[in-house]
Amino acid sequence: MVITVKINCDFVSQLKLTIEEVSEIVAVIQQQYGYDFSNYAMASFTRRVQRVCDIAKLDSFFELKHQLINNPSFFPFFLETITVKVTEMFRDPLFYKELREKVLPVLASYPIIKIWHPGCATGEEVFSMCIVLHEAGLLSRSIIYATDINAGSIEKAKQGFVPLKAMKDYTANYLQSGGLQDFSSYYTARYDNVLINKDLRKNIVFSTHNLVTDGVFNEFQLICCRNVMIYFNRELQNKVYQLFYRSLSSLGFLAIGARESLLFSTIKPEFDVVSIPQKIYRRKT
Asked: What own/partner pairs with CB < 8 Å and gap ≥ 24 does 104-111 have?
């Protein structure tokens, strides 16, 4: 059973959560559901919990706590609401241009290419990767693992739909990234959405994965995790970077977001820089 919450845009909860109350909510979630948010950036996490209260019309901290403890169907809604799902196809086009020019020619030497997209949200960046691989002639021997903590996002990504209203911007991104084809050939319009071609999606393995608690599950030639770490504090960032290091093959590539950095992580000495502006690194032997 999944709770359905009707959003009333005119309603604003009078509840203002304190850091202590949010910390207690974090403890409840970890004990009740096994999700650990203790090392998320607290200011950002607090704003998102506040949004849960606004949407669900909760007027007290105790009401929020009661829902989490006594109403199991409330937690899927809670998780869906606090999870950041900002994504787009060919986001930061120059990143994909560097990927085409500096990373894919190296990956072409592998008989099987394994790529991991942690924090894939609803799949737009994964679909972008598949198009780039297709145009490089590498998609047929690639396996792309797309994971996210949010099971709802994974289900949406599996369907392969992208909002039609965004395609004008996505087409511009694609062309700036060095796209080689007519972008519209990669999808079919379906009312208010477009459906990404099935042939592009057939090598994607979608699954839930929690970067905080789950471990290594494969060895990858490329890990692409962009704009996820900005929601973690320094301690958790370092823990996740260690996970990525252990998940990469020797000389494997790691791509992170424009606002993220390996500078203060313990794994920085283990990587060479491939592209400073696009934050692409390569694990040393």
From this structure: 104/132, 104/133, 104/136, 104/138, 106/251, 106/253, 107/138, 107/221, 107/222, 107/253, 108/136, 108/137, 108/138, 110/141, 110/221, 111/141
Give the pairing of strands 113-118 and 220-225.
parallel
| Residue keyed to tokens 């704009």 | 227
Does the domain formed by 93-283 have CATH 3.40.50.150?
yes
The bridge status of strand 220-225 relative to strand 248-256 is: parallel
**Residue 263 to residue 243: CA distance in whole angstroms:** 16
Segment 105-145, tens digit of pLDDT: 999 999 999 999 999 999 999 999 999 999 999 999 999 99
> In the chain, what is the straight-line distance between the N-terminal and C-terminal CA atoms, in Å?
49
Domain boundaries, the chain: 19-82, 93-283
CA distance 27 to 38: 8
